[in-house]
Design brief:
233 residues; 5-stranded antiparallel beta sheet; 58% helix
Length: 233
């Protein structure tokens, strides 16, 4: 009896420790994302944001026990602008093959249309599963989470496993919480990018105005010189 009570206590402690680890990891990733959001997304800065998103993807696979995962970023027309994978799975040719594609079919298409989490417990019995060329052949469980900001779809986080019924309900909740932070990161990077482009546009306009003003001054100077040349001494 005492042994059973001790066993239950140990199990409870292990559960609490695992939950604490999850919260700690989520906090670390969210803090890194918030730090990335505060910086101007030049090419170098965007690489930093992208690295943060890749680390978050790795954490998502570790947290859920997923064997594979990817994060695709979309523009307003649902065209893929970037494809992020775990470092050991990254293939430049495969990633670039997704760029410019519209995700309108399979589970990604379903998530795009419904703006809801797509959970497939077994791909053998769900016609929404249509694997992309770069995805692993043996996939039975899939969790696809929309990255939403004010109902705008910014991307889709997809996690996969070779065993059916792998993704438990708590994984869905955790990935939804993570997707909110990913959305914040992407949206802020976009806003800073637009602001940076506005500044660049203003600077180009300023340079054009200054050049035009100088040309006018030159022409006025020539006009005054001509007038002086015609004046009698």
């Amino acid at each position: 009896m005492e042994m059973e009570s001790l066993r239950q206590e140990v199990f409870k402690l292990k559960t609490e420790k695992a939950a604490l680890k999850v919260k700690s990891k989520l906090f670390e990733n969210f803090a890194a994302m918030a730090h990335s959001c505060c910086r101007q997304p030049s090419a170098a800065e965007w690489r930093s944001v992208r690295e943060t998103l890749q680390k978050t993807l790795v954490f998502c696979t570790e947290l859920t026990g997923a064997q594979h995962g990817n994060l695709v970023l979309l523009d307003s027309n649902l065209v893929v602008t970037d494809s992020i994978q775990k470092p050991e799975e990254s293939d430049q040719d495969q990633c670039c093959g997704l760029i410019g594609q519209v995700l309108d079919k399979g589970l990604s298409g379903w998530v795009s249309n419904h703006h809801q989490v797509g959970l497939i417990t077994d791909t053998h019995g769900d016609d929404r599963w249509l694997p992309l060329p770069h995805q692993p052949k043996t996939v039975r469980s899939v969790l696809a989470v929309p990255i939403l900001k004010c109902d705008e779809l910014l991307g889709i986080l997809t996690l996969m496993h070779s065993r059916p019924n792998h993704f438990a309900p708590e994984f869905v909740e955790q990935m939804q919480a993570t997707s909110d932070q990913i959305a914040m990161t992407i949206e802020n990077a976009r806003l800073y990018g637009r602001l940076d482009e506005s500044y660049r546009s203003l600077d180009r306009s300023r340079q054009e105005i200054e050049a035009y003003s100088k040309a006018l001054d030159d022409e006025l100077g020539k006009g005054r010189q001509i007038q002086r040349d015609f004046l009698p001494w």
